[in-house]
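User: quick one, fold this
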Amino acid sequence: MTDGRLHLSAEALERVRRPLKQAWTLPPAAYTDESVYALEVERIMRRSWLPVARVDQLAAPGDYLAFDLFGQPMMVVHGADGAIRAMSSVCLHRAAPVVAEAKGRRSLFTCPYHAWAYDTAGQLVRAPLMDGASGFAERDCRLPRFPVEIWEGFVMVNLDPGAAPFAPTVETYRRYFASYRLADMVVVRTLDYAHDWNWKCLVENFMEAYHHIAAHGQTLEPAFHAADSRIPDNDGPWSILHMPAAHPHAEGGLPLIEGLEPWQQNDLVAAAVFPHFLIAVQGSAVFWYQLFPRAACRLDLRIHVCVPAATAARPDIDELAAATAELVALIHGEDIAVNDLVAQGLAAPATGQGRLSPLERSIWQLNQWWLDRMTGGAPAP
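Assistant:
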C-alpha cells in the first residue's frame, strides 16, 4: 500500500516537464525509492497492457505459462476450446498455487494441497470430500480471469478488469511495423537475465542510440551511428527509435524477412509501448525484451529471438538461432556493464538530475507518459 502521493519535489518534476531542449531526467529517487516503485505498480503496472507470451509459445490445447505479475500468481493457458485465457493460478480453496512449473501442458490443473482440479478454462471440475459443505457446488467455482488481447501474435494481459482495449491505442505504431509481419514470428531462442536495476534504466538504455558512441563503440556504433538516429512524433503510449544503417545488409546468417523495403532490410529499429513492451527489428528477426520488474532496483529479463515461421522451419535453424543469440548476448553484455554503473551512481547521495540530449527524445516521451500516470496529469503535491 502507498499513501497515493508521488514523493518527488515539484521543482524536480517541473524540470522533467520542460520541452526536450530544456528537459532533465527523472530524479534519482524515481529509480531507487521503493515507495515510488510501489506507486508505479499501483498506478501503471496493474493498469497497463503487458506482453506475457507469444501465441506460438502456447501452440497446443493445454499449453500454459505460469508467472508472477506484480504480486498476482497467474497462468496463460491455451484452452481445450482453442481460446487463450489469463487466470489466477491460486486455488479457490486454501490459496495454494495450482502449478509449480513455469511452463508445460496439462488437461487439468490439480492443486497439490487438497487435489482440487480445474480445467483449461479455469472451471473447478473436482473437489474431493466436499459433499457435506452446505451450498457448495463445483459448477459455481472458477479461477478469476483477466483481460486478454492477442495483438500481432503477442498475448497481452491487463490486471485491470475494466481496462480499455489495447489495439486502438497503438494503431499508428502497428502500421509502422506492418511489413515485418509480427504475427508470423515464432520464438527460437530465449536468454534469461536477472539485474539489480530499476526497470526504467533498461527501457531508457534500449530507447536511445546516444550510448553507441561509448558502450557499443566497437559493435553497434560502426554499423548504426548514434548521430544519425531519429525518433518520430508519437500519438499514443509508444516511442520508436530509428537507427539508419551505415552499410548494406551483410549476407549470411538468418535470411531476410520477405517483403521488406531496402531501408527495413538494413536499418535497426527499437520500439517501446509504455511502460516496458520492448522490441527491436532488423532485417531478419525480431528481438523481444520481456521485462518482469520485481522491486525498485531489481528486474528479471528474457530476451526472445523471434523469426518468421518459415525461417524457424529451416533444418539449420538451431545453428542460425544460436549464432544470433550469441550476438545478442554480446550486445547485452555491453549494456550490462554500463547499466551496472548507472545503478551504482543513482544510489549515490550526491547524484541529481541530468540534462537530456536531443538524441534521447524517447526518454523524454516516456517521462511525460510516466508523469501523467503517476500524478494524474497534474504536478505532484
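User: anything notable?
Assistant: The first strand starts at residue 50 and ends at 54.
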